[in-house]
Amino acid sequence: MSTRVILRPETFLQRAAPVLLFLLLARPPALADPVDDLVRETMDRQRIAGLSLAVVKEGRVMRTGGYGYANLEWRNPARPDTLYQIGSVTKPLTAQAVLMLADEGKVSLDDRLSRHVPEVPEDWGKATIRHLLQHTSGIPSETEPPGFQSLLTADYTPVRLLSMVRHRPVEFEPGARWSYSNMGYYLLGVVIERASGLSYEAFMRERIFQPLGMASTRVNSLEAVIPNRASGYAYTGEYRNIPPVDPRIPYAAGAILSSVEDLARWEQA
After folding, report:
1. Where would a tag sit more exposed on the chain, N or C end, judged by fewer CB atoms within 10 A?
2. 3-state secondary structure string, the chain?
């Protein structure tokens, strides 16, 4: 003879609760993730609003992730496909473009700058393409003259900026020593355009981004509607919006938007 036991819901919960509590207490604690711990500790310490991460080891993407927010006002989470202004990480991409043109015989690394950009000052023109790539040109770093933002127009061009900064003397003879130069890479953008017959943006898109599957990477634009673009913030006791950098200022020295997913593809390539 079998006995059938019927438990009312409240009776079941009363009996199950101690068992559930025991199981919860008996479960081993989740293993700490040292990467997550490091990222979150750094974000807290440096007041970083949002961060995206990709870890590449021996050509393999080991992990990707997002932390915090890409936009604080809308509480949009940072993700692996969030687009950031990558600043001077633009420079290795610009260097790759120059080396591709060198492989094709359109540029020689020992060409003087004056061969491709004859309107530069004579002392600037003595520097070679190699000097520009290696930050040994002696050309001053700054790409933004006083009052530059107030002079920007929709048809602003690199040649126009050069006319505003060309009065600056070199800091040393080309090759004499090393000194980081944004202007050197700005000028390499001009070299790319003149040697290829394409705009810097078109060359990078057609020759590097598209072939490598870097589908979201592009030269930044303040006017374009760009999905997944992160906002920029400063922290002064609280987060504040900061004005975006007009990409015409850094140009080939720092105008690219990219994601960690795309940069992982670049690293693999």
Report:
1. N
2. CCCCCCCCHHHHHHHHHHHHHHHHHHCCCCCCCHHHHHHHHHHHHHCCCEEEEEEEECCEEEEEEEEEEEECCCCEECCCCCEEECHHHHHHHHHHHHHHHHHCCCCCCCCEHHHHCCCCCHHHHCCEHHHHHHCCCCCCCCCCCCCHHHHCCCCCCHHHHHHHHCCCCCCCCCCCCCCCCHHHHHHHHHHHHHHHCCCHHHHHHHHHHCCCCCCCCEECCCCCCCCCECCCEEECCCEEECCCCCCCCCHHHCCEEECHHHHHHHHHC
